[in-house]
Amino acid sequence: MSFSLIHIPDYSDCFNLIIEVRNDVMKFDAQDCILVGKYRLAQTVFDFRLRNAELAQITKPGQFAHILVPGKTLRRPISICDVEGDTLRIVFEIRGDGTRILSECEVGDKINIIAPLGKGFDIPQDKKIVFIGGGIGVPPMLYSAKQAGNDSVVINGFRDKSAVILTEDFKKIGCRLVETTDNGTYGIHGFVTSPLEEIIDEIDMICACGPTPMLKNISRLAKEHNKPCFVSLEQRMACGVGACLGCAVGIKRDDGTVTYKHVCKDGPVFNAEEVAW
Amino acid sequence: MADLSVNIAGVEFSNPIIAASGTIGFGHEYGELYPLSVFGGISCKGTTLKERPGNPPPRIAETPMGMLNAVGLQNPGAEHFINVELPWLKKQNTVIIANAAGSTEGDYCEITELLSDTDVDMIELNISCPNVKAGGAQFGTSPESVEKITSAVRKYCKKPLIIKLSPNVADIAAVAKAAEFAGADAVSLINTLTGMRIDINTRRPIIRNVTGGMSGPAVFPIAVRMVYQVKKAVKIPVIGLGGISTWQDAVEMIMAGADAIQIGTILFTDPYAPIKISEGLHGWLDTHDMKSVTELTGTVITD
Question: Do B268 and A26 touch (CB under 8 A)?
């Protein structure tokens, strides 16, 4: 099957990496999972463990699950934080009605998800990568950072101390962890871009997920220092699979014009250089 | 087992469930989950002569029991549809309906002429898209404008012609009659209702286009009412759509007067909906000793 609308960029010119060219055939399904673990990581942040061996087995870093919320027409796209055996881990924040209803699910409940969806991060083994998460953009960096070599760096930024999540999980994977808070109540006082600037010349590649202003600033720094940078983007989404064209993101064409690609199928991970910020 | 096949304007459908335009693209994605032949037909993404980038994001907002969209007819253009998408679609063992859109009467005539010389089984004229600045719904808002565009396009259309009607009108029956009078072979209704949501924190519309087309279960009763009114007004086949989510909804829409149905937004909630609706419809017909789904059309009792 061909997906001729999808352009798989060739990055081999801009840096000397062999990027694994993904098979064009998408592999996902809508299936029930059993909620086998539920934890509260912060006031409005929940950690769900969803058992479904088939979907867990084929999930790659940076992909997402499209989660059915009882009583809602639209599913909620939530990035996959980690995969442990037959279990998918998702960490989400209550942002509105849908995520509030989801947070009220209890262990033993069935939750229907379409997963794994989207194109995630390609993690070259021989490169020093910095993974940067901001707020609820931190969770998808866990599974991604796990795939990378030990000399990788993780920079996680939060609003304040009460919002800090997943510290122990990142420590366990053995990479260097730097944490920041906007107001200095925990870790380094300031934004993730400050520690990034200090190490940017030592690393080969940036992978980031978080609020758009943060990604935009990271992308600017990456360009200034000529480092490849991949960002995971968010957009209001309907089908989740690439059929409805709802979750558009502006992408620069070679001729300077802007076209629209879609977070669900072309992304959520994009080369920061092609994003029309 | 009851016979689910229907004949719409001379075209045989293996079952009356058609995927609604704009919700299934050109079929690739849901084709990963099941053979597209679970649908009697597929109405493809609205296609214009030239590629269209669509509207800036956000394009989607949720509403109680439904959603708004303002995709703005993003599509790769007629040439791509004909050369790349259609050959693959034709192998999927389902009726292929091209959804033709444009900005001017001339656009509609030209794309209809182009599509008439291809292997598409039917052409659905999209004169009811609420999300584009020029064209779209402006052709679908009055009986006079519908008659004019249908007559013009009819001259170029060698395929069975479906006119897709907008619900954003005063008298849907009069609009349907105008389409029939001007030579339409069938009508499909309803397209989306124009809606709007505002983010109370930012005071801005959630959708960048400000307004969007509302779909989903919330619009179902409006669709049933309009299909009922149109069925009484015209002799051509009526394709009913708007918020159909369950097999019970399908039975209800067919009772109201639909010869076939389209499903759209429910695919986003449950991609496997067409299979469940098909099975439920079979079961209902068998329980009620009906040999064919065509016996059910328009059987609502109103005395």
Answer: no
Closest listed residue to residue A76, CA positions, set A133, A136, A121, A160: A136
Q: For the segment A212-248, what is each residue's pLDDT rounded down to a tens digit?
A: 999 999 999 999 999 999 999 999 999 999 999 999 9
With 0-12 CB in 10 A as exposed, 13-18 as middle and 19+ as buried, what is B234?
buried
C-alpha–C-alpha distance, residues A185 and A117, integer Å: 36
Contact B20, B26 (CB under 8 A): no
Q: Which helix (H) or strand (E) holds B199?
A: strand B198-199
Distance CA B31, CA B202 (A): 39
The radius of gyration of chain A's CA atoms, rounded to the nearest angstrom, is 18
Average pLDDT, rounded, for chain B:
96
* B115-140: average pLDDT: 85
Catalytic (active-site) positions of B? 129
B238 contacts B258 by C-beta, under 8 angstroms: yes
Give the residue numbers spanning the domain of B96: 6-295
Contact A236 B60 (CB under 8 A): yes
pLDDT averages per 10-residue partition of chain A, 277 residues: 36 35 62 97 97 95 97 96 96 95 97 96 92 96 89 94 96 92 95 94 95 96 96 96 97 90 96 94
In a domain, B286, yes or no: yes
Which chain A residue has the Cα nearest residue B70? A246
Contact A74 B268 (CB under 8 A): yes
Mutate to test the interface with B, among A74, A255, A261, A265 (most CBs of B within 10 A): A74
Q: By the CB < 8 Å criterion, does B35 face chain A?
A: no
Residue of A nearest to B264 (CA): A244
Q: pLDDT at residue B298 above 90? A: yes
- Shortest Cα distance, chain B CAs vs residue A36, angstroms: 23
Q: Is residue B18 part of a domain?
A: yes
Residues of A within 8 A of B270 (CB-CB) are 30, 68
Contact list in A for residue B58 (CB cut-off 8 A) is 235-236
Q: With respect to residue B301, please indicate whether it lies within any of the assigned structural domains.
A: no
Query: Which domains occur in chain A, in start order?
Result: 29-117 (2.40.30.10), 129-274 (3.40.50.80)
- Total-model pTM: 0.92
Nearest C-alpha in A relative to B83: A4
Say what the pLDDT of residue A8 is: 37
Contacting residues of B for A236, CB less than 8 Å apart: 57-61, 206
